[in-house]
Amino acid sequence: MTPFFPQGHRSISPQYPPLPWRLRNFNAIDIAKPEMNSFLMKSVGQIRFMGHAGIAVQKDNFELLIDPWLWSSTLTKPVINGFVPPNQGMGFLPRDSGDQHSDFQPQLILLSGFEFTHSPFEEIAAWIATRPLCLALPEPDLNQGRLILAALKPQAFDRVDFRFCLAGQHFQKGPFTIQAHFHPHPQHLIWEVRCDDFKILYIPKTPYNRGPDPLVLDICYEPFAGAKPDFLFIECPGETKKIVGDKKIEIQEFLTTTPVQTARLVAHIQPRFVGLVGNSNPDPQKRTHDYHLPAHVIEEQFQWALYQLCPETKTIGLRSGQKFSIAKNDHELQTHLHLSIT
């Protein structure tokens, strides 16, 4: 069995034993010791991690998916298409969780952007073919709208409630209230999902600032200062660009957040629980141009920094196929992890 947070500290695998500087009291959830007494708690929902950066949320027989991706590139089918053509590429999920398309029965799908790893066309089209659902995504331009029309079969439109969202818009679906927030990248959204029992914030493709020089937090995150959502899922690929030309390498660290910058942003938001997404699936097409920190390095650096900056926030180590239930009593929301990976 792959250890996640045994004994309250990180030890990713035998190849990466605990380093001397690692703190034994990292504020991580110990999966061997659930935080709740099942006799005193009432289950109010479930969250399931899907592959690269996808989240499935269930409550009251209603299922919501955010950026779902289930199928990797293969030798016979190497190219993955994004929901808005011609966005495509090759990518490999970090491990096979055993998740099947039929395991999910979504009534609502939220897309944070149009990258193929966040908006896979085939998975979404297959769900549309089997059930009516609501699909919320950033507002496409006219040409992108035409491409969506051309890619989907005409009969599919009778089953889809399209919600082309701009920052500031919100709507109600099932037990959830959905709020779209501004994102620094064009045609991207930060999603906020609320219900009576818990609140989730999902931040993809997280830049610390829109420019390479200032190391101050971008003003777009100011509305989330001290927001204290119950769950924050934030992308932290720890990615830097390497531009090679005339024997020169230029590293632009502002394109995505480093683990320490991500920890500073998390401390700004102050969630109860945080999980890193999008940090374990490099795109092989970009390997000559990008340098990706290994996932275990990202998680260790983030965990160390977060413990210093916001010790009240607990980290959930996300692995493909992992499930955990959300339960509460009369006093506070708590979680009880149920791992399905061995």
Please describe what this structure looks like.
This protein is α/β, with parallel strands linked by helices. The protein has a single domain (32-237, 259-280, 295-328), classed as Metallo-beta-lactamase, Chain A (4-Layer Sandwich), CATH 3.60.15.10. 13% of the residues lie in helices and 29% in strands. An eight-stranded mixed sheet has the order 8-7-6-3-2-1-19-20, covered by helices on one side. Strands 9-10-11-12-13-16-18 form a seven-stranded mixed sheet, with no helix packed on it. It has a three-stranded antiparallel sheet with strand order 15-14-17, with no helix packed on it. Strand 7 (133-138), helix 2 (142-151) and strand 8 form a beta-alpha-beta unit. The longest helix is centred in the C-terminal third of the chain and has 15 residues, at 295-309. It is globular, with a radius of gyration of 20 Å.
Topology summary:
Blueprint: E1 42-50, E2 54-59, E3 62-66, E4 80-81, E5 88-89, E6 108-110, H1 121-130, E7 133-138, H2 142-151, E8 160-165, E9 170-173, E10 176-182, E11 189-194, E12 199-203, E13 231-235, E14 239-245, E15 248-252, H3 259-269, E16 273-277, E17 290-292, H4 295-309, E18 314-315, E19 323-328, E20 333-338
Parallel strand pairs: 3-6, 6-7, 7-8, 12-13, 13-16, 16-18
Antiparallel strand pairs: 1-2, 1-19, 2-3, 4-5, 9-10, 10-11, 11-12, 14-15, 14-17, 19-20
Helix pairs in contact: 3-4
Helix and strand pattern: EEEEEEHEHEEEEEEEEHEEHEEE
**Secondary-structure arrangement, i.e. CATH architecture:** 4-Layer Sandwich
Q: What number of domains?
A: 1
Question: Mean pLDDT, as a whole number?
Answer: 78
**Number of helices in the DSSP assignment:** 4
Helical content stands at 10-25%
Q: What does the main sheet amount to?
A: 8 strands, mixed
What separation lies between the terminal Cα atoms? Answer: 5 Å
Strands of the widest sheet, in order across it, are 8-7-6-3-2-1-19-20
Task: State which percent range the strand residues make up.
Answer: 25-35%
Can you tell me the CATH topology? Metallo-beta-lactamase, Chain A
Which consecutive residue ranges, at least 5 long each, have pLDDT under 50?
1-26, 30-37, 338-342
Radius of gyration: 20 Å
Give the overall shape.
Answer: globular
Number of strands: 20
Structural class by SSE content: alpha/beta
Per CATH, the class reads Alpha Beta
The CATH superfamily is: Ribonuclease Z/Hydroxyacylglutathione hydrolase-like
